[in-house]
Design brief:
Helices cover about 30% and strands about 30% of the residues. The chain has seven helices and nine strands, in the order H-H-E-H-E-H-E-E-H-E-H-E-E-H-E-E. The chain has a seven-stranded mixed β-sheet, sandwiched between helices. Helix 3 links the parallel strand 1 and strand 2.
């Protein structure tokens, strides 16, 4: 069972009207700003969840395919698309196995706070890269590994491995796997997938958002990567 399925109903509600909405709105707007004009472009929203970023891209004229491994989160995304259509195609897929029917199809891909949850990072990055056109771009948001170390979320900066996130719901708390990696490991994984780091942006703190605390090291970073032309 995909890790987010047990909390999908709670997560979708929090993303739309609850404590996660401001956080997701902030990151989605920042990713759109990095993307520039997306009108008419084919865009893959990788790990789309309940479709927050996909809907923003589509509202700005992108032709969006949104993929996720969680059938329950996709159900929420499709229900909202049915009520408020934006032409988004939602696909259930394990990106570590690629998207063979979309090989080289996309001008742009986004991955909003999802790569930290991927055990097979190399497989997922390769799957995304293969779906991009040559020189296509990947825009992503992720936890800053330096901040995780500074905040004591890991025993030491070099202690890469499996952690967990605990989400509270109206049911017993659910732990979701989380994979901590050093920034060196991230950059090496990007390079091995044929993705070159182009831009890094630190997301500043937001006193009104508990998910963006005022820490000595920014909690979240945004990255822009380019797929190397063959």
């Amino acid at each position: 069972m995909p890790a987010y399925d047990p909390i999908a109903d709670w997560y979708a509600a929090q993303s739309r009207t609850g404590s996660l909405r401001r956080f997701h709105d902030n990151l989605a707007r920042r990713l759109l700003g990095m993307a520039g004009d997306v009108f008419g472009k084919r865009v893959l929203d990788a790990g789309c969840g309940e479709g927050h970023v996909a809907r923003l891209l589509a509202r700005h004229g992108a032709r969006v395919v949104a993929a996720d491994v969680s059938p329950r989160l996709l159900e929420h995304a499709r229900q909202l698309e049915a009520r408020d259509p934006h032409g988004i195609e939602f696909v259930q897929a394990d990106l570590a196995r690629g998207l063979p029917s979309f090989k080289g199809a996309f001008d742009l891909a986004t991955a909003n706070m999802m790569l930290d949850d991927c055990e097979d990072l190399a497989g997922v990055l390769t799957g995304i890269a293969d779906a991009l056109k040559p020189n296509g771009r990947l825009l992503l948001s992720m936890n800053n590994p330096y901040a995780l170390a500074a905040r004591g979320k890991v025993v030491g900066y070099f202690a890469s491995g499996t952690l967990s996130q605990t989400f509270g719901t109206d049911r017993p708390e659910v732990e979701v796997p989380f994979y901590y990696r050093t920034f060196e490991q991230w950059v090496n994984a990007f390079s091995q997938a044929g993705l070159l780091l182009h831009t890094l942006v630190d997301v500043p703190p937001d006193p009104s958002d508990p998910h963006l605390p005022d820490d000595p090291v920014p909690k979240i970073m945004l990255l822009e990567l380019d797929r190397r032309a063959s």
